[in-house]
Amino acid sequence: MPIMKLWRSKWQMPKNLYYLRLQAYAAWGLVFVLLLVSIVGANWSGASFVVLLFRCAAVALSVYGLLCVLILRGIFPKTSVLLRQIWLVCAALFCLSFIVIEIVIASECKTDVFVKDAQDAEYLIVLGCGIRGTTPSLSLQGRLDAALAYVRTHPLITIVVSGGQGVGEDIPESEAMFRYLRDHGVAPEKILQENQSRNTGENIKFSLTVIENYSLENGLSTPMGESIVVCTNDFHLFRAKSLLNKAGVRAYGLSVPPPYQYLAIAGWVREYFSVIFMGRDVRDYQV
Predict the structure, then answer these.
(1) Cα 219 to Cα 212: distance, rounded to the nearest angstrom
(2) Contacts of 214 (CB under 8 A, 6+ apart)
(3) For residues 90 and 98, is the Cβ–Cβ distance under 8 A?
(4) How far apart are alpha carbons 174 and 214 in whole angstroms?
(5) Tens digits of per-residue pLDDT, 219-257?
(6) pLDDT, position 162
(7) Residues 211/123, Cβ–Cβ less than 8 Å
(8) What percentage of the chain exceeds 90 in pLDDT?
(9) Alpha helices in 199-287, H assignment, sequence order
(10) What is the number of other CB atoms lying within 10 angstroms of the CB of residue 126?
(11) What is the pLDDT of residue 259?
(12) 3-state class of 159 per DSSP?
Protein backbone atom coordinates (compact mmCIF):
# COMPACT_ATOMS: atom_id res chain seq x y z
CA MET A 1 0.00 0.00 0.00
CA PRO A 2 2.72 2.58 0.83
CA ILE A 3 4.41 1.70 -2.46
CA MET A 4 1.20 2.38 -4.40
CA LYS A 5 0.73 5.72 -2.61
CA LEU A 6 4.29 6.68 -3.48
CA TRP A 7 3.71 5.65 -7.11
CA ARG A 8 0.54 7.77 -7.36
CA SER A 9 2.06 10.79 -5.64
CA LYS A 10 5.22 10.77 -7.74
CA TRP A 11 4.16 9.49 -11.15
CA GLN A 12 0.41 9.68 -11.70
CA MET A 13 -0.81 12.96 -10.20
CA PRO A 14 -1.08 15.55 -12.98
CA LYS A 15 -0.67 18.47 -10.58
CA ASN A 16 2.51 17.34 -8.87
CA LEU A 17 5.98 18.56 -9.68
CA TYR A 18 7.05 15.51 -11.62
CA TYR A 19 5.80 16.90 -14.94
CA LEU A 20 7.36 20.25 -14.20
CA ARG A 21 10.65 18.50 -13.57
CA LEU A 22 10.36 16.76 -16.94
CA GLN A 23 9.69 20.12 -18.61
CA ALA A 24 12.79 21.60 -16.99
CA TYR A 25 14.91 18.66 -18.19
CA ALA A 26 13.45 18.98 -21.72
CA ALA A 27 14.03 22.74 -21.81
CA TRP A 28 17.67 22.48 -20.75
CA GLY A 29 18.21 19.57 -23.12
CA LEU A 30 16.88 21.61 -26.03
CA VAL A 31 19.08 24.52 -24.97
CA PHE A 32 22.13 22.27 -25.21
CA VAL A 33 21.09 20.95 -28.64
CA LEU A 34 20.32 24.43 -30.02
CA LEU A 35 23.62 25.85 -28.83
CA LEU A 36 25.51 22.87 -30.25
CA VAL A 37 23.82 23.22 -33.64
CA SER A 38 24.40 26.98 -33.67
CA ILE A 39 28.12 26.41 -33.05
CA VAL A 40 28.35 23.81 -35.81
CA GLY A 41 26.19 25.86 -38.20
CA ALA A 42 28.23 29.03 -37.73
CA ASN A 43 30.38 27.94 -40.69
CA TRP A 44 27.47 27.12 -43.01
CA SER A 45 27.03 29.42 -45.99
CA GLY A 46 23.96 31.63 -45.62
CA ALA A 47 23.05 30.19 -42.21
CA SER A 48 23.75 33.27 -40.09
CA PHE A 49 20.05 33.92 -39.51
CA VAL A 50 19.44 30.30 -38.50
CA VAL A 51 22.30 30.51 -36.00
CA LEU A 52 20.88 33.72 -34.55
CA LEU A 53 17.40 32.19 -34.36
CA PHE A 54 18.70 29.09 -32.57
CA ARG A 55 20.54 31.23 -30.05
CA CYS A 56 17.43 33.31 -29.36
CA ALA A 57 15.40 30.12 -28.93
CA ALA A 58 18.05 28.82 -26.54
CA VAL A 59 17.75 31.99 -24.44
CA ALA A 60 13.94 31.72 -24.36
CA LEU A 61 14.08 28.05 -23.32
CA SER A 62 16.72 28.87 -20.71
CA VAL A 63 14.30 31.35 -19.16
CA TYR A 64 11.56 28.71 -19.10
CA GLY A 65 13.90 26.10 -17.63
CA LEU A 66 15.01 28.58 -14.96
CA LEU A 67 11.40 29.36 -14.03
CA CYS A 68 10.70 25.63 -13.69
CA VAL A 69 13.71 25.25 -11.40
CA LEU A 70 12.60 28.20 -9.24
CA ILE A 71 9.15 26.66 -8.84
CA LEU A 72 10.62 23.26 -7.98
CA ARG A 73 12.92 24.86 -5.39
CA GLY A 74 10.17 27.02 -3.94
CA ILE A 75 12.03 30.24 -4.72
CA PHE A 76 9.63 33.15 -5.31
CA PRO A 77 6.89 30.58 -6.02
CA LYS A 78 4.02 32.96 -6.84
CA THR A 79 6.11 35.18 -9.08
CA SER A 80 7.74 32.20 -10.79
CA VAL A 81 4.38 30.53 -11.46
CA LEU A 82 2.97 33.78 -12.89
CA LEU A 83 6.00 34.36 -15.12
CA ARG A 84 5.84 30.77 -16.35
CA GLN A 85 2.18 31.21 -17.29
CA ILE A 86 3.01 34.44 -19.13
CA TRP A 87 5.83 32.63 -20.95
CA LEU A 88 3.45 29.85 -22.04
CA VAL A 89 0.84 32.34 -23.30
CA CYS A 90 3.47 34.25 -25.28
CA ALA A 91 4.80 30.99 -26.76
CA ALA A 92 1.28 29.94 -27.78
CA LEU A 93 0.58 33.31 -29.41
CA PHE A 94 3.90 33.15 -31.25
CA CYS A 95 3.15 29.65 -32.59
CA LEU A 96 -0.36 30.68 -33.69
CA SER A 97 0.85 33.81 -35.47
CA PHE A 98 3.70 31.87 -37.08
CA ILE A 99 1.30 29.30 -38.54
CA VAL A 100 -1.11 31.95 -39.85
CA ILE A 101 1.59 34.11 -41.46
CA GLU A 102 3.38 31.13 -43.00
CA ILE A 103 0.08 30.04 -44.59
CA VAL A 104 -0.30 33.53 -46.07
CA ILE A 105 3.28 33.46 -47.37
CA ALA A 106 2.76 29.99 -48.87
CA SER A 107 -0.33 31.21 -50.72
CA GLU A 108 1.92 33.37 -52.95
CA CYS A 109 4.98 31.14 -53.27
CA LYS A 110 4.23 29.76 -56.75
CA THR A 111 4.90 31.29 -60.15
CA ASP A 112 1.79 33.21 -61.24
CA VAL A 113 -0.43 31.96 -64.05
CA PHE A 114 0.24 35.24 -65.85
CA VAL A 115 3.91 34.30 -66.08
CA LYS A 116 3.26 30.65 -66.95
CA ASP A 117 0.95 31.67 -69.80
CA ALA A 118 3.82 33.72 -71.28
CA GLN A 119 1.81 36.92 -71.35
CA ASP A 120 3.79 40.07 -71.92
CA ALA A 121 4.97 42.23 -69.04
CA GLU A 122 6.83 45.52 -69.32
CA TYR A 123 9.68 44.83 -66.91
CA LEU A 124 11.32 41.98 -65.02
CA ILE A 125 12.86 42.87 -61.64
CA VAL A 126 15.44 40.42 -60.32
CA LEU A 127 16.11 40.90 -56.61
CA GLY A 128 19.65 40.41 -55.31
CA CYS A 129 20.56 38.11 -52.44
CA GLY A 130 24.30 38.25 -51.90
CA ILE A 131 27.54 37.76 -53.80
CA ARG A 132 30.95 36.39 -52.83
CA GLY A 133 33.49 38.96 -53.94
CA THR A 134 32.23 39.41 -57.50
CA THR A 135 30.51 36.02 -57.93
CA PRO A 136 26.75 35.61 -57.40
CA SER A 137 25.77 33.24 -54.58
CA LEU A 138 24.01 29.99 -55.49
CA SER A 139 20.67 31.50 -54.49
CA LEU A 140 21.29 34.50 -56.72
CA GLN A 141 22.43 32.28 -59.58
CA GLY A 142 19.13 30.45 -59.31
CA ARG A 143 17.24 33.71 -59.65
CA LEU A 144 19.37 34.81 -62.60
CA ASP A 145 18.95 31.46 -64.37
CA ALA A 146 15.18 31.71 -63.93
CA ALA A 147 15.32 35.23 -65.37
CA LEU A 148 17.32 33.97 -68.35
CA ALA A 149 14.75 31.27 -69.04
CA TYR A 150 11.98 33.88 -68.90
CA VAL A 151 13.85 36.28 -71.19
CA ARG A 152 14.22 33.58 -73.85
CA THR A 153 10.43 33.55 -74.26
CA HIS A 154 10.10 37.32 -73.72
CA PRO A 155 12.99 38.85 -75.72
CA LEU A 156 11.52 42.38 -75.65
CA ILE A 157 11.26 42.65 -71.87
CA THR A 158 13.50 45.07 -69.95
CA ILE A 159 15.34 43.60 -66.96
CA VAL A 160 16.06 45.50 -63.75
CA VAL A 161 18.75 43.95 -61.56
CA SER A 162 18.47 45.26 -58.00
CA GLY A 163 20.99 45.12 -55.17
CA GLY A 164 23.54 47.34 -53.48
CA GLN A 165 27.00 46.51 -52.14
CA GLY A 166 27.14 44.75 -48.78
CA VAL A 167 29.83 43.50 -46.42
CA GLY A 168 32.30 41.14 -48.14
CA GLU A 169 31.15 42.20 -51.60
CA ASP A 170 33.71 43.78 -53.93
CA ILE A 171 31.10 45.27 -56.26
CA PRO A 172 27.36 46.01 -56.02
CA GLU A 173 25.12 42.99 -56.45
CA SER A 174 23.50 44.66 -59.44
CA GLU A 175 26.86 44.81 -61.25
CA ALA A 176 27.52 41.10 -60.63
CA MET A 177 24.02 40.32 -61.88
CA PHE A 178 24.51 42.52 -64.94
CA ARG A 179 27.75 40.69 -65.82
CA TYR A 180 26.13 37.28 -65.35
CA LEU A 181 23.19 38.10 -67.63
CA ARG A 182 25.45 39.78 -70.20
CA ASP A 183 27.80 36.79 -70.26
CA HIS A 184 24.81 34.51 -70.85
CA GLY A 185 23.62 36.36 -73.91
CA VAL A 186 21.37 39.18 -72.70
CA ALA A 187 21.92 42.45 -74.55
CA PRO A 188 23.45 45.02 -72.15
CA GLU A 189 21.01 47.72 -73.31
CA LYS A 190 18.12 45.54 -72.05
CA ILE A 191 19.47 45.54 -68.48
CA LEU A 192 18.94 48.38 -66.02
CA GLN A 193 20.88 48.52 -62.75
CA GLU A 194 19.69 49.59 -59.30
CA ASN A 195 22.75 49.58 -57.04
CA GLN A 196 21.74 51.44 -53.86
CA SER A 197 19.28 49.14 -52.07
CA ARG A 198 20.01 47.36 -48.78
CA ASN A 199 16.71 45.52 -48.17
CA THR A 200 13.59 44.39 -49.97
CA GLY A 201 11.74 47.65 -49.43
CA GLU A 202 14.57 49.61 -50.98
CA ASN A 203 14.89 47.01 -53.77
CA ILE A 204 11.34 47.75 -54.82
CA LYS A 205 11.35 51.48 -54.22
CA PHE A 206 14.64 52.19 -55.99
CA SER A 207 13.87 49.77 -58.84
CA LEU A 208 10.63 51.61 -59.57
CA THR A 209 12.57 54.88 -59.53
CA VAL A 210 15.02 53.43 -62.08
CA ILE A 211 12.10 52.27 -64.24
CA GLU A 212 10.40 55.65 -63.98
CA ASN A 213 13.58 57.51 -65.01
CA TYR A 214 14.13 55.09 -67.89
CA SER A 215 10.54 55.55 -69.03
CA LEU A 216 10.80 59.33 -68.97
CA GLU A 217 14.08 59.30 -70.88
CA ASN A 218 12.63 57.07 -73.60
CA GLY A 219 9.16 58.57 -73.79
CA LEU A 220 7.47 55.49 -72.33
CA SER A 221 4.66 55.21 -69.82
CA THR A 222 5.51 55.31 -66.10
CA PRO A 223 5.60 52.05 -64.13
CA MET A 224 2.41 52.91 -62.24
CA GLY A 225 -0.31 50.61 -63.52
CA GLU A 226 2.09 48.56 -65.64
CA SER A 227 2.61 44.81 -65.34
CA ILE A 228 5.91 43.89 -63.71
CA VAL A 229 7.29 40.42 -63.03
CA VAL A 230 9.46 40.07 -59.94
CA CYS A 231 11.93 37.18 -59.75
CA THR A 232 12.95 35.94 -56.32
CA ASN A 233 12.85 32.87 -54.08
CA ASP A 234 9.49 31.25 -53.38
CA PHE A 235 9.31 32.29 -49.72
CA HIS A 236 10.12 35.89 -50.69
CA LEU A 237 7.42 36.36 -53.32
CA PHE A 238 4.59 37.37 -50.98
CA ARG A 239 6.49 40.32 -49.54
CA ALA A 240 7.98 41.45 -52.86
CA LYS A 241 4.60 41.36 -54.61
CA SER A 242 2.85 43.05 -51.68
CA LEU A 243 5.30 45.95 -51.79
CA LEU A 244 4.92 46.32 -55.56
CA ASN A 245 1.13 46.19 -55.35
CA LYS A 246 1.18 48.83 -52.63
CA ALA A 247 3.17 51.07 -54.97
CA GLY A 248 0.40 50.81 -57.58
CA VAL A 249 2.01 48.19 -59.83
CA ARG A 250 0.41 44.99 -61.09
CA ALA A 251 2.97 42.54 -59.77
CA TYR A 252 3.43 38.92 -60.83
CA GLY A 253 5.83 36.43 -59.32
CA LEU A 254 8.50 34.25 -60.90
CA SER A 255 9.27 31.70 -58.20
CA VAL A 256 12.73 30.21 -57.65
CA PRO A 257 13.43 27.43 -55.10
CA PRO A 258 16.50 27.84 -52.82
CA PRO A 259 19.51 25.67 -53.71
CA TYR A 260 19.69 23.94 -50.29
CA GLN A 261 17.02 22.72 -47.89
CA TYR A 262 18.50 24.47 -44.87
CA LEU A 263 18.41 27.76 -46.80
CA ALA A 264 14.74 27.13 -47.54
CA ILE A 265 14.00 26.58 -43.84
CA ALA A 266 15.96 29.69 -42.90
CA GLY A 267 14.20 31.73 -45.57
CA TRP A 268 10.68 30.69 -44.57
CA VAL A 269 11.35 31.41 -40.90
CA ARG A 270 13.04 34.74 -41.64
CA GLU A 271 10.09 35.81 -43.79
CA TYR A 272 7.80 35.46 -40.78
CA PHE A 273 9.68 38.22 -39.00
CA SER A 274 10.10 40.24 -42.20
CA VAL A 275 6.37 40.21 -42.87
CA ILE A 276 5.63 41.33 -39.31
CA PHE A 277 7.92 44.32 -39.73
CA MET A 278 7.07 44.88 -43.39
CA GLY A 279 5.56 48.27 -42.53
CA ARG A 280 9.12 49.54 -42.05
CA ASP A 281 9.84 48.68 -45.68
CA VAL A 282 6.68 50.39 -46.91
CA ARG A 283 7.17 53.85 -45.43
CA ASP A 284 7.78 56.64 -47.96
CA TYR A 285 7.13 54.04 -50.61
CA GLN A 286 5.43 55.84 -53.46
CA VAL A 287 7.78 57.01 -56.23
Answers:
(1) 10
(2) 158, 192, 220
(3) no
(4) 16
(5) 766 655 578 999 999 999 999 999 998 888 888 999 999
(6) 95
(7) yes
(8) 49
(9) 200-217, 237-246, 261-276, 278-282
(10) 32
(11) 84
(12) strand
Selection from 235, 60, 10 nearest residue 143 by Cα: 235
- Residue 233's DSSP bridge partners are 256
Backbone angles phi, psi at 152, to 5 degrees: -60, -30
50, 208, 245, 252 from 192: Cα distances, Å: 33, 11, 21, 19
Report which secondary-structure segment, H or E, holds 26: helix 18-41
Output the pLDDT for position 193.
Answer: 95
Q: Is the pTM of this model over 0.85?
A: no
Tell me how crowded residue 175 is: count the other CB atoms within 10 A of its CB. 18
Q: Please check whether residue 246 is in contact with residue 284, taking contact to mean a CB–CB distance below 8 angstroms.
A: no
> Taking the CB of residue 79, how many other CB atoms lie within 10 A of it?
12
- Answer for the pair 255, 110: CB distance below 8 angstroms, yes or no: yes
Q: What is the DSSP letter of 75?
A: S
Q: For residues 249 and 245, give the distance between their C-alpha atoms in angstroms, rounded to a whole number.
A: 5
Number of C-beta neighbours around residue 154 at 10 A? 17
Q: How many Å apart are CA 186 and CA 190, to the nearest integer?
A: 7
Averages of pLDDT over each 10 residues, the chain, 287 residues: 43 60 92 88 68 89 93 88 94 95 91 69 90 90 94 90 88 94 93 93 93 83 72 93 89 89 82 78 38
d(CA 270, CA 254): 20
Give the pLDDT of residue 189: 92
Element spanning 86, H or E? helix 77-106
